[in-house]
Amino acid sequence: MKGRLLWKLLLVNVLPVIGVIVLVIWVAIDMLAADYFMVLMKKYMVVPTETHRMFLAAIHRYLVWAALAALAVALLLSYLLTRRLLRPLAQMARLTDRFAAGDFTQRVEVTTSDEVGQLGRAFNHMADAMARLDQLRRSLVADVAHELRTPLTNLRGYFEGLSDGVIPPRSATFVMLEEEVLRLVHLVEEMQQLARADAAGSYLVLEPLSLTELVSQVLALYRPACEARGLTPTLAIPPALDRVQGDRERLLQAIRNLVDNAVKYTQPGGTVAIHAEADSVGVRTVFANSGATIPPADLPFIFERFFRADRSRTRRDGEAGGAGIGLAIVKSLIAAHGGEVGAASDADGVRIWFSLPESRD
Question: CA-CA distance, 82 to 84, in Å (whole number)?
């Protein structure tokens, strides 16, 4: 591919230019220089026929040699420059084969700032994203295997104990087995929710909605959990920013995931605050909570599917971490509405938000 493209560029750029230059000079000599020569020959009483023929032959001969020399130099320089220009494209062709084999470690060497250099940087950016997604995929396999192994191992052990008569069939034992089964069911449901969120854009039912009503409905569901942890969530949405355009069920699901995160990751007695503000998209709804923060290195990835920041944000004792799908579901649902998501973290805690177009009705 590289060789064919290289010679095509050389033929297209060099030969027409050299040909036009030689043609112009050739015509100029025949039409102008030859006429001036004839005038001089007549002025000095010299028979011009043979001399004129020799003059044109010499000029044409040297013009041909000059054209060949110019063509050789032009081909050499164009070859070197074009080869250097096409080097990133050749690297991309080689790297795509490596990427297809699962090796995302190599990058294109970018040495220019022109269009080819921009293409090389875009290719490297794509490679970084692919490497990150591949790592997330590998983490997913490990995380899902871990999530499945623990309850399945517990279930297997207790069922073997019950079968062998080592463990008596008491009510508490069956309650614990039910909890393990529910963990498995919860993981499967999260995966299903993510699949539905990815396809949400194809079946949204958009209508004017009240943010205050949606958030209040979700907070009512979490009131027992908040009271148990000594939390009193606050809600501040100005009337001017209360109306958004969206699908009720999908937005309730996104809000539920964000409230669930805020409550579960806030230490007892902490604060959970929800408010709305205007931004470039329309209305930004912010979910802020005190407590454990998110490291800056993790912030760009918390909305990626299967990414788990549990190592930096620990849920309260006795709760199992999810598979890193909740915020990915939020991102997919909000993107289906034409909105955006974002997050920030500092010493005061964590702020996660989504922005939606404001309703005009």
Answer: 5
pTM: 0.55
How sure is the predictor about 209, in pLDDT bands with cuts at 50, 70 and 90?
very high
Location of structure tokens 């805690």: 349
Measured CA to CA, the distance from residue 332 to residue 246 in angstroms comes to 14
Q: What rounded mean pLDDT belongs to the chain?
A: 77
Give, for 6, the enclosing helix (H) or strand (E). Answer: helix 2-28
Q: Do 301 and 307 meet the contact criterion of CB atoms below 8 Å apart?
A: yes
Closest listed residue to residue 334, CA positions, set 294, 264, 288, 281? 281
Q: Closest Cα partner for 132 from 352, 314, 298, 261?
A: 298
Do the beta carbons of residue 151 and residue 169 sit within 8 Å? Answer: no
CA 321/CA 341 separation, integer angstroms: 22
CA distance 310 to 322: 9
b/e for 311-324, b at 16 or more Cβ within 10 A? eebeeeeeeebbbb
Cβ contacts of 53-58, under 8 Å, gap ≥ 24: 56/29, 56/30
Chain CA centroid to CA 242, Å: 31
CA angle 173/176/179 to nearest 5° reads 155
